[in-house]
Amino acid sequence: MSGHPTPRVPKAPNEANTYEATLKKNQIHGWRLEICQKVRNFDSDIDNYLRTFLSSRTPYVAAIGADVLNMASKFEPKRGMEKESYAPLLKIFTALVAYFPADRRPSFYGGYEQRIPFPFSDFAHRHHKSKPDLAVSWPGDVLPSDRKIESPHCRQFSMAIEVKALNTDDPFVKYKNGRRTLSNTRADKLVQLAVNARNLLFAHGLLAAFTLGIYGEVVRIVRFDHACAVASPPIDIKTLEGLRAIQEFFWRFVHPWEGGPGTVVGADPTVRHLTAEDKAWLKTRIGAEAGSPFGEVHFEEARWVQVWDSEDNSPAEPKAYILFKVVDVNARLFSRSTMVWKCIEDTRLRPREGPGAQAGDPEELVLQIVKEQWRQCIRTPEKEFYDRMNSTIKDPADRIGLPNMVHGCDMGKRDVKRWETAVASKPWQSDDDLLCTHAEPSEDADESEVDREFPAPVIERGYVPSLPIPMHQTHSWRLTVGASMMAKERSHMRLVVDTVGRPLDQFGSTKELVMAIYDAIRGHRTLMERGGILHRDVSSGNILIVDKQPRERVPCKGILHDYDYSSMTKKPPLAADPSDVPGQIPALHPLERMGDNEPENVAELKERTGTYYFISVEIFRSPKANGGCVLHDTQHDLESFIWVLVWIVLRHVRHDHERGREACSVVFKYGDDDAASSAKRIWLLDCATKPLSVPGNSPLTDLLFKLHEMLSIALVNVPVSDRRRLTYDTVLAAFETAIKREDWPTDDKALPFVPPKTEKLDTKSEDFDNDPPTALQGVCFDADVLDSDEHDVDEPNPPEVKHQKKRTHERFADEEESELPSVFTETRSDATGSRKRQRNNQGVAARPSAGPSSSRAARGSVRGTSGGSRTTGGRGTVGSRRAVERLIEEAMKKARSSG
Fold it and tell me: In the 8-state DSSP scheme, what is residue 826?
């Protein structure tokens, strides 16, 4: 990183605040934005594409019969008759694979009228169903050709196929200028492939997923991983060369470098679905404790995985775990794609200690958590933060609010080391050596089909024509653009932690909710003062309510997890000489002020990270200081903890906010920094006259009032010199006072949040360039996490502000402008192709209605002076700086008059 903050690229929210944001037509708009710049064309021939992305040690021999050529010659797709293409394509593909060994042969299914749900039932309600035109089975499975599958599921398929009627429907075509201009209609064709690939990746724990796009007579192979998608050159299905390419693709697909019959290229060799034996053992193992904290077990969704502790070439045996319950999933395609599972160790093969002990003997059942994610390669691996935590906070009594990593490593780093060892023709110490892991022959294969003594490839240093690229670390950008794209690649992490919890929005009582956040803040403080670690992504999803933890740990109600966006000092704060560091870490820029313990790069603290709804107001407004951005610090994380509590209360507690279920969408705006900052500050000013309260819950009401008071002093007091920053002592004291009270209600568990209907969102069709984006880059749809760079794109949901062609940024008069770069839409101005640039920014959210005493300006429509946009207070955007200033001024006057 440089010494300057990286550009802010907000992405789509993970949780919708309004009903309209959940509609499929509005989510599709966000998907369009996600795939923008994330779909690459492979600039070489199809043979090179197959060798690069589908390595196989089982030689392919072409076998194109006259019947296949005859069927292909009669294939005549026609406009408006897409469905008529399905049957001929099924016959062609079936004929191409007819000579494959039975246990490697895929079958094809025409389920175009059936919808397939998201792979995990507990989260299926958050995602719309997919509907692939055709689907491909797993090798050896036979899908019905004369009937429909009852309740089809992603687990039954290894690949999805989308079909369009005409060659001109091909969305991967580049025009003469080398760029690909996509209308929404063309972009939606890519979205169909992306949704299918996303579901396949999650359903099977794949490292990469393949889809086919068929556009008239043109076939495209598209490989998806969590960094980007790579499309093959066009294949003509009516030519002999094209049929051979398709046949070789299927052959290689079902003959991966690693794994025997039944697996495919892209499958993770360290993961498998449960066998009947696995399910029986799991039922026996957890049967006596099938209630909380185990909950309902979906055996079809469960999987068996291996976990390594070492990333080096040293003898090591992995541990095996059965993951039986999904706790949380970030179902975004080009993202970290984090999954959190409840699990138990598979002890059947592990030797037991003691005389006469046998492998698999019953022992105490230990419930743990497995976390899988695809981190950006440019970021510090989360394991390093756990290593620092373990070295500086050794006493379990001091680990309140903090998890403990017991196993795990960066699978991507390990895979690259394994590949480099194979390139150097050196032995790999574990049993998964790439040069020794021979492809397993099919049971019914003869000697002519598979050479059982197939030799290891001849390897020259630096050039490996046959070895598969490392799969646990993406290489798509480097293979299609160049080595400079390493920053866009991702690495697969798999970690096991000892503390099991549930999301905050599943609290059993509001006191439990408050205690969980309190313990998380305590853990945050310990991390900062003892480990020199600043979390920087405090959110509702990164705080868990503790259900079960090891006996040696001091009981606590909440933990703070997910450290892959954290910052860390060069040395622990107390490592050199404790006398050099005061007992209380300074509240202002502690990481920078630790002398030798300052961060590796101060620019890391200037980087914009965090879950958008909970980002600090100061970071949103980001005055031009310190190199152009506010340094992320402890007070910003403390502010995020408070916003987390407010968020949960507005969504899952019966409160008295006058907007009811709409309150959350009023206070928490998404997509525009000024809108988000203004909405929060205006809410703080409104609460000065009408505090948020929870009927029948005085402790929570008083806590909200106290925290509101702290935020107001820190964020909206004028002059700025009178503001007082948040500190650990003041925030923790407020929580402690509330927790000690004895008048908490006991029957107030979390209420389900149903997004309210407000107004329809605008997703009008627009044209955009795939490389590079112009207007779309400034439309803030795509992230649960507001990352500092564009490579962390998360699954899209629509914006909660109306998308308009023209927008203007609104600023407060008493502060300097933020560093958000201007975004321009390019439009043709004349026949020669010169372009005219127009600003394309978003406005600021109007303040919510403050009750009967609020002014007309605060509650009514405001006409902008620059953008000309009009909106009703609390529901849209304000079109001018003066309008926002009037709202702030009016609210402040009201606050002062009320004392």
Answer: E
**Identity of the amino acid at 876:** G
Q: How many CA atoms lie within 13 A of 481 on its CB side?
A: 20
Tell whether the model's pLDDT for residue 321 goes beyond 70: yes
d(CA 20, CA 474): 35
Q: Which tokens go with 220?
A: 């495209």
Q: What is the 3-state secondary structure (H, E, C) of 740-777?
A: HCCCCCCCCCCCCCCCCCCCCCCCCCCCEECCCCCHHH
Instruction: Find the mean pLDDT for residues 306-323.
Output: 86
Place of tokens 């680990």: 399
CA distances from 742 to 176, 515, 519, 745, 746 (A): 73, 14, 19, 9, 11
Task: Report the C-alpha gap between 337 and 339 in whole angstroms.
Answer: 7
Per-position b or e across 479-493, b if 16+ CB within 10 A of its CB: bbeeeebeebbbbbb
- DSSP-based three-state secondary structure for 364: coil
As a whole number, mean pLDDT of residues 95-101 equals 95
Angle in degrees, CA 563, 569, 571, rounded to 5? 120
Strands annotated E in 206-293: 209-215, 218-224, 229-231, 235-236, 271-273
| 8 Å CB contact between 293 and 500 | yes
Q: What's the CA dihedral at 885, 886, 887, 891 to 10 degrees?
A: 100
Instruction: Classify 813 in phi/psi space as left (phi over 0), alpha (psi -120 to 50) or beta.
Output: alpha
User: Which one is predicted more confidently, 483 or 802?
Assistant: 483
Instruction: Confirm if 796 and 36 have CB atoms less than 8 A apart.
Output: no
DSSP notation for 151-213: S--GGGEEEEEEEES-GGG-TT---TTS--EE-HHHHHHHHHHHHHHHHHHHHHT-S-EEEEE
What does the radius of gyration of the chain's CA atoms come to, in whole angstroms?
A: 28
- CB-CB contact of 788 with 5 (8 Å): yes
Cβ(111)–Cβ(152) below 8 Å: yes
Residues with Cβ within 8 Å of 56's Cβ and at least 6 positions away in sequence, in order, are 251, 252, 255, 256, 257, 265, 439
What number of residues does the chain have? 899
Instruction: For residue 423, give the nearest of 415, 488, 314 by alpha carbon.
Output: 415
Token pair for residue 857? 């300006």
**Residue 882 pLDDT level (bands cut at 50, 70, 90):** very low
C-alpha distances in angstroms, 602 versus 31, 629, 725, 782? 34, 11, 21, 27
Place of tokens 């009009």: 870
Count CA within 13 A, CB hemisphere, residue 475: 14
Rounded-to-integer distance, Cα 663 and Cα 810, Å: 22
pLDDT digits (tens, 9 = 90+) for 554-599: 789 999 988 888 888 888 886 544 444 444 443 334 454 444 444 4
Please tell me the number of Cα atoms within 13 Å of 689 on its side-chain side: 19
Residue from 661, 825, 676 nearest 755 by CA: 661
134 has pLDDT over 90 = yes
Among residues 770, 763, 701, the alpha carbon closest in space to that of 737 is found at 701
What is the pTM (predicted TM-score) of this model?
Answer: 0.77
